[in-house]
Amino acid sequence: MPAASPFERVRAAPVLGVGLGVDLFSDRPDFRRLVSRHRQGFDFLEIYTRGNWRDAADLLRQVPPGVPRTYHHEGLDPVGPALCPDEPILGCVENQRLLNPPWTVEELAVRHIDGLYTDFFFPAILTQDSLNASIANLRALNARLPCPLLPENAPYEFVVGDMHLCQWLTRLAHGADCGLVLDLGHLWSYQLCAGRGDDPLHGIDQLDLSRVIEVHLAGARVETYPGGRIYRDLHGAGPIPEPSLMLLRELAPKLPNLKAVTIEVEDATERRALDQCAQARHILRQARPDWGPRP
Predict the structure, then answer these.
(1) What are 75-133's pLDDT values in tens digits?
(2) What is the span of the domain harbouring residue 146?
(3) Residue 194 CB partners (closer than 8 Å, separation 6+)
(4) How many CB atoms lie within 10 A of CB 81?
(5) How many separate domains does the chain show?
(6) Cα–Cα–Cα angle for 30, 32, 36, nearest 5°?
(7) Backbone torsions φ then ψ of 256, nearest 5 degrees
(8) Domain annotation covers residue 262
(9) CB 3.0 to 4.6 Å from 287: which of 8, 134, 224, 252, for a disulfide?
(10) pLDDT of 195-208, one tens digit each?
(11) What secondary structure, in 3-state letters, does the chain show?
(12) Residue 292 within a domain
């Protein structure tokens, strides 16, 4: 019997609910205090290793086994012209084994150029050539990783290519036979760059919503320049923009395979992290009252 595809595997996973995305190496908020003091305030943790997979093992072992978790890796550069080096792949394999998550999130961006780490996300070029290379990379990565990789739409500060992002994501998901993480703020960042900032849902009919397994929300600010507006991720250091919350209200009832909603709260106080989680949970209860983790 053939092995289940990456998409079939994540689609079969249980619903995790509403969780907090935390930076493993940061004490703002410290994931250990969130677990010990505020466990009733979130359903799961998404553990982000900030591209530093080499020094994560001791901290990963401190995530209590009873806390559901997903893993957010960085360094696989899946939209690059060729497959990344072995080291980040092996680091991802090791961290997956330590966490045993149902899936691993990776940005559809390039963070390494000639072996050097860049603090800027170079997002996917929206062309057929880029799509073909990204599909090949994702297929190769999923063949080597213990648990499925879920690619996430990256933030855009400029757009290159002739495809709409939603069309590109659909073709990627089908070509690589995988699910998707839909970051709602990053979707709006693309619309802002494309001159569609007042219509965050523009082109959503081109996105196969059945492929969305996880949704991301985060604090942000929008900066205005002579040429337009640019979205800047703040994660927990700022409020979640209303367009992101609107997208959650509109899309949540239309995502048949939604398993998790993650609030990225790096740089947040514990209070803000919990308040933003409660804010998303309130919207979901109104928009989709039957959705949530089962005991």
Answers:
(1) 999 999 999 999 999 999 999 999 999 999 999 999 888 777 777 789 999 999 999 99
(2) 6-287
(3) 159, 164, 165, 202
(4) 12
(5) 1
(6) 125
(7) -65, -25
(8) yes
(9) 252
(10) 999 999 999 999 99
(11) CCCCCHHHHHHCCCCCEEEEEEECCCCCCCHHHHHHHHHHHCCCEEEECCCCCCCCHHHHCCCCCCCCEEEECCCCCCCCCCCCCHHHHHHHHHHHHHHCCCCEEEECEEEEECCEEEEEEEECCECHHHHHHHHHHHHHHHHHCCCCEEEECCCCCCCCECCCHHHHHHHHHHHHCCCEEEEHHHHHHHHHHCCCCCCCCCCHHHCCHHHEEEEEEEEEEEEEECCEEEEEEEECCCCCCHHHHHHHHHHHHHCCCCCEEEEECCCCCHHHHHHHHHHHHHHHHHHCCCCCCCC
(12) no
With respect to residue 143, please indicate whether it lies within any of the assigned structural domains: yes
Tell me whether residue 1 is in a domain.
Answer: no
